[in-house]
Amino acid sequence: xxxxxxxxxxxxxxGNFSPEIxxxxxxxxxxxxxxxxIQINEFLKDNNFKTIIVKxxxxxxxxxxxxxxxxxxxxxxxxxxxxxxxxxxxxxHNKFINLEVEKENLDLSRSSIVRYFKEIKKILDDSGxxxxxxxxxxxxxSYISEECKNIFCKKIIKFxxxxxxxxxxxxxxxxxxxxxxxxxxxxxxxxxxKSTQISSTNFIISFLCTLVIIDxxxxxxxxxxxxxxxxxxxxxxxxxxxxxSEYDERYRNHLLFFVVSLKKQHFLFESEISTNGHILLSKLxxxxxxxxxxxxxxxxxxxxxxxxxxxxxxxxxxxxxxxIDKSDKILLSMFNEILNSIxxxxxxxxxxxxxxxxxxxxxxxxxxxxxxxxxxxxxxxISDDHYLKNNLKLKAPNINFEIEPGFLYRSNVTLFNxxxxxxxxxxxxxxxxxxxxxxYNSINILNLxxxxxxxxxxxxxxx
Length: 463
What we know:
The chain is an alpha/beta fold. The protein has five domains: 3-76, Orthogonal Bundle (Arc Repressor Mutant, subunit A); 78-153, Orthogonal Bundle (Arc Repressor Mutant, subunit A), CATH 1.10.10; 180-263; 271-365; 367-458, Rossmann fold. It has helices at residues 3-12, 19-26, 30-46, 65-72, 80-94, 99-106, 110-127, 146-163, 174-177, 182-195, 202-218, 234-243, 249-263, 271-287, 295-313, 326-341, 348-365, 386-395, 406-411, 413-419, 442-458; strands at residues 53-55, 58-60, 96-97, 130-134, 138-143, 372-377, 400-405, 422-425, 435-436. The strands form three sheets. A four-stranded parallel β-sheet has the order 7-6-8-9, with helices on both faces. Strands 3-5-4 form a three-stranded antiparallel β-sheet. Helix 5 (80-94) crosses helix 7 (110-127), helix 11 runs antiparallel to helix 13 (249-263) and helix 14 (271-287) packs across helix 15. The model has no long low-confidence stretch (mean pLDDT 87).
């Protein structure tokens, strides 16, 4: 089973996808996907599983949880990148590796295990770590650099995000991660983050769990150059010390440092991802006239961009199928142009996720475009609907809503068009720029206002 086929199955384990979308994720031409599906179905048939079918123009594979776990636990179902990651993190974690043992463990040929270890040595050499051969025993790491700790950290975070912390006993990583009680660690970290009003994203939780391993096995990170005075946060320190009392002081101090960093809106991503994230954010702000963007919204967008870069750079296929509308397609085209201009790529789902955040930001940032809204109704009773008026005023206090019967508009079109930024009606006006209301529902009305703001903002940009 080659890496492309493995990744296609990983996608199908998360939902149904069209061949076009799958081709975007696995970097294969759409016309070649059919060949991959035939190969995968042969594998599935040989192992008495159901096969991939086409369902509503999407590829679908209906397996239960046990069947999926059976497939992904097979040693012949591990990609080359996963083998390399496993060998690297196990070697760094244990500071020792026996290639003969790992050859048997992974059912690899001697030439294959030597090839993998050659790559691992290059990573260690380039990062400034050192190792030595022990005759008849294996290879021992004698020094682990800070850069090597960062690499190790990324690989474990990648594993956690991809597996949702679900470390099965037949998993290769279980061999050296079983000594940690991640259920306990997860619960306590989540409690600390919630108590300090920090969002518990997958990336943050994965990083702080990985920190336990790095502190225990690798001596933690070197924080001597930090300019954060932890003595200024006695309440947070007390919370962490009480919650994580069974963990050693070094870990608690490291956890305090990173919790404070998160609270101060510092980012935990490596410099390259952080730099690329800020570059992309700057390009987006320039493209969509968001120079004076609210700092809170800016940080939300920047975090999502950095997480998306991290997922793409580390081949983390944690996605789901999603539908896109007209505005999504327009924004996607603009977004792809910006990505190309900085020579970066992202998974399709993460592009759509960023676009959804961007849409909300554009709407929020341009609320002033709509200050006066006219609602035209043919139903006479609606004109006196004070509940609707009050509800709209409550949800959109900065907008002046007026409700009038439709015939008044027809009697003086120019006057009404000049007076209102947006006119909504329950009947179609073929030659007028009036949006059609399908229901007398405040949510429907507010959604149409948001669509109008987005459309008005994008039209001059989409030339």
